[in-house]
């Protein structure tokens, strides 16, 4: 079964009451869906370092049996602009894969309790293709931990995950990350399109002093997007605090605000 992002948003906004995932009947594929879209993005004063650039993002996700997946691949300086902040960057791409394995579907038991709808073994892989020999801030991390879907007031179902972080560049574990994400349609038009509040929080803590100039830090993305079944247009405001464990300074800003604009085509 395939559901569009529009359908998923409508279900999230209008399903009441929302029931916990129930796989006790053995049908682990009854909630399967998938989606993919391409986002043409503009970033302004992105932290760390106040970088402004364009990029193309392939974003995707879905559910198949016991597996839940979200991911994206960003390609920087799509227009090959020689004046872009990414023109001479060592990293030309950034990718994130965040697969989760449902413990409810795996055990065929209802593990929900209170506002928690479903439990997962959660993981996240982030990589930018560079090494620390050429870029001190190169990214190559793997995270593993416990994930969940949780019902909260107004927003509805959110993802909430807690990970331990392994840094493959450092060959060592370095702190933890708590992540949450949401997608909340809140205004609907007669033609079926809608406006959503969507975003995420990634917050790292417990990072080691030998590897990080700040022991904790993170980012929060707040997006307002118009969606139809095939297109989306949006603006995002992103807030940073010592992001990636980099202590904010006048010489290299890692805290503050950045802005994003996006035009999307959905497949």
Give structural notes.
This protein has 267 residues and is mostly beta strands. The chain has one domain: Outer membrane phospholipase (ompla), Chain C (Beta Barrel). It has helices at 5-14, 103-107, and strands at residues 33-46, 51-64, 67-76, 93-102, 116-127, 140-152, 156-167, 172-188, 194-205, 217-227, 231-241, 256-266. It is found in: Cell outer membrane. Its main location: membrane.
Descriptors:
single chain; 267 residues; mainly beta; Outer membrane phospholipase (ompla), Chain C; 12-stranded antiparallel β-barrel; 55% strand; globular; disordered N terminus; cell outer membrane; Channel_Tsx-like
Topology:
Blueprint: H1 5-14, E1 33-46, E2 51-64, E3 67-76, E4 93-102, H2 103-107, E5 116-127, E6 140-152, E7 156-167, E8 172-188, E9 194-205, E10 217-227, E11 231-241, E12 256-266
Antiparallel strand pairs: 1-2, 1-12, 2-3, 3-4, 4-5, 5-6, 6-7, 7-8, 8-9, 9-10, 10-11, 11-12
CATH superfamily: Nucleoside-specific channel-forming protein, Tsx-like
Biggest sheet, strands in spatial order? 1-2-3-4-5-6-7-8-9-10-11-12
Radius of gyration: 19 Å
The backbone outline, from C-alpha atoms, is: globular
Q: Pairing-aware structural class of the strands and helices? A: mainly beta
Helical amount: under 10%
Return residue spans where pLDDT drops below 50 for at least 5 consecutive residues: 1-17
Note the main sheet: 12 strands, antiparallel, barrel
Mean pLDDT: 91
SSE order in H/E notation? HEEEEHEEEEEEEE
Assembly classification: single chain
Q: Would you state the CATH class?
A: Mainly Beta
What is the number of domains? 1
Beta-strand percentage range: over 45%
Task: State the CATH topology.
Answer: Outer membrane phospholipase (ompla), Chain C
């Amino acid at each position: 079964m395939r559901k569009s992002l529009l359908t998923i948003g409508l279900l999230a906004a209008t399903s009441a009451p929302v029931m916990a995932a129930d796989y006790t009947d053995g049908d682990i594929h009854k909630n399967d869906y998938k989606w993919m879209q391409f986002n043409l993005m503009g970033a302004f004063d992105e932290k760390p370092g106040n970088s402004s650039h364009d990029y193309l993002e392939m974003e995707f996700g879905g559910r198949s049996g016991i597996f839940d997946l979200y991911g994206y691949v960003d390609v920087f300086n799509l227009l090959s602009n020689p004046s872009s902040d990414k023109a001479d960057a060592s990293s030309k791409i950034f990718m994130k894969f965040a697969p989760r394995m449902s413990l409810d579907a795996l055990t065929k038991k209802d593990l929900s309790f209170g506002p928690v709808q479903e439990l997962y073994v959660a993981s996240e892989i982030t990589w930018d293709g560079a090494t620390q020999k050429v870029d001190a801030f190169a990214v190559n991390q793997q995270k593993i931990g416990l994930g969940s879907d949780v019902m909260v007031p107004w927003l509805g179902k959110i993802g909430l995950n807690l990970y331990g972080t392994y840094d493959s560049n450092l060959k060592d574990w370095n702190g933890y990350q708590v992540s949450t994400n949401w997608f909340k349609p809140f205004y609907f038009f007669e033609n079926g399109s809608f406006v959503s509040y969507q975003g995420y929080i990634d917050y790292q803590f417990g990072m080691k002093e030998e590897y990080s100039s700040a022991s904790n830090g993170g980012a929060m993305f707040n997006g307002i997007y118009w969606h139809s079944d095939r297109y989306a247009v949006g603006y995002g405001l992103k807030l940073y605090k010592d992001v990636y464990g980099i202590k904010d300074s006048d010489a290299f800003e890692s805290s503050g605000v950045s802005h994003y604009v996006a035009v999307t085509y959905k497949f």
